[in-house]
Amino acid sequence: MSDNDPNPMYTIGELARRAGVPVRTIRFWSDEGVLPPTTRSHGGYRLYDSAAVARLEFVRTLRELGLDLPMVKEVVAGRRTLAEMAASHVNALDAEIRVLKTRRAVLSTVAHRDTTIEEMRLMHKLARQSATERQRLIDDFVAETFAGVEDNAPGAGIATSMRSLPTDLPDEPTPAQVDAWVELAELITDEDFRIRTRQMAVTGAMGGPAEPPPFDPATVVEKAGAAITAGIEPGTAEGAAILAELLDGELDADARVALADSLATFTSRKVERYWELLGTLNGWPAFKPAVPAFEWVIAALRV
Question: pTM, whole model, 2 decimals?
């Protein structure tokens, strides 16, 4: 090749030296159709023109940005625009980054506390799952639990709220958030939890209790909670006095049993735990558990 040649042709070795790319890489790209030779010499050797030099630089740049060879080939062949391919690659990178962040969070938690083998197994399983797979886990749980419940039925809005489990951990999750994430994944596969949640959904869809309870729920949490803290049992005289304060009017024995049964339908520690864990993951304000107070009232009503 002459330096004065207006249309210089380069051998694969010359092209490699000019571009700083190994010969074996250029040969591989050429064989794959990404960088075909411009022509061949009489001896059958590959020759490349100046346009091939520019294309080689372009291909190398795309590869260094992380695009795989089929994607590069699509762009070079003009079947997809560079903008389309870049957008697609950005989405793929975002998904990969989310997975890496999840794995980092899991490993960080394991490194800073005693983790059982079973917890580690579940963490690893969750870390390997894609965001789509984790969302499907939640959607399947909600679909099964609320099957047949109309969207506009009373109490059916709980289904929408139960879908608010984030499919990914925060970028810098706290140990509590990692724990909550793992515990929630276990909880939604718990058969008792599913049965209780469906019982609440179906009863709520039917209109729930015929009449509102004869007390203020906030007052129940306050007064019954104080009774629990003080060690006052539901069946004692002190317990009966507290129950009388809570009830709006006198109830006969049958009415008390009916009220206790109605409250029991919507009182579940596992369901309340679901909301606690959901709040931890979503950064919601912490709330005081209400179920223990209502369990105390239910027991007092049954005495």
Answer: 0.59
